[in-house]
Amino acid sequence: MKKVLITGGAGFIGSHLGDFLLKKGYHLTAIDNLSWGKKEFISHNLTNPRFKFIKADLLNYKDLLNVLDSQIDTVFHLAANSDIMRGAIDPSIDFKNTTQATFNILEVMRKKGIKKIFYTSGSGVYGDIGKKKIPENYGPLLPISMYGATKLSAEAMISSFVNLYDFQAWMIRPANIIGSRATHGVIYDFINRLKKDPSKLDILGNGKQNKSYLYITDVINAIDLIWMRDKSRISIYNVASDSTITVNQIARMVLKEMCLKQVKINHSMGDRGWKGDVPIISLTNSKLSSIGWKYQYSSKQAVRKTVQSLLIN
Ligand SMILES: NC(=O)c1ccc[n+]([C@@H]2O[C@H](COP(=O)([O-])OP(=O)(O)OC[C@H]3O[C@@H](n4cnc5c(N)ncnc54)[C@H](O)[C@@H]3O)[C@@H](O)[C@H]2O)c1
Asked: What residue stretches are annotated with the NAD-dependent epimerase/dehydratase domain (predicted)?
């Protein structure tokens, strides 16, 4: 069975992807600096002889060179700063952990003769387009956050490695991904605020932000399908369901699941949570559907399942 590697392998999506790939019989190495990732997300795999965890930072090029095995078939590159709001406060965070980190992994892959990369980009590359449905070939791409800008820079470098060094690349631009082991995001945030003080809930922005939320299993299924079925040298896919949900609807669902009544809801001014937040985004999914992808959960169902699983843990 093939050897594969996940960067960001102890994170939310990376740990679920790891569980999936191990179940399919692959030999898996997971790299993570544990800045956001947690050992507990992968601890159940530590006794599996086909699993290896390496605590390493993608910014440390020499360490990467030492730990990457040239027998690896595909690198699933997930490591990044996934906290968009933090990146708005300090732009160097995204530059280092997305642009520089992606360059480092590409360079080490090149040196070791590893040529296949599966990259989790983000819908932030599209910028603030409003209600219009966005297909993969939309342009010009004008991101409004460092998160989006550095994701775009990573896509561009990957594209050049495909051309210059005969790499093969699959890239996805997912909607908001949610589920168990989520360590940030609106649902996680609401639950934690309410646990601390159940009398009030502060919502960033007017609560009308309207986005698509996808359950983790639907994303893992998309990654597997794309990796298995798309044989082109380079491909890009949006990954989103057709449904959306507003932040106010999410807040009501969290309150209901936590059985909280008479909670004072405060909104901050403006149509978005923070500068760099894209308040309304709608992605097409026809390209992904054309290779056989069907999602199981609507945005509403995904949010409910996530609230329930985060409340149990
Ligand atoms: N969660 C979403 O809604 C969503 C949507 C679109 C794209 N993505 C992308 O998917 C990927 C995974 O996201 P996630 O939600 O699982 O986030 P996450 O923060 O749980 O996972 C990222 C992991 O990368 C690790 N990491 C960060 N910088 C590193 C570095 N320099 N060296 C080594 N490890 C490092 C972190 O510790 C973390 O475990 C990210 O690239 C993210 O941008 C996520």
From this structure: 4-240
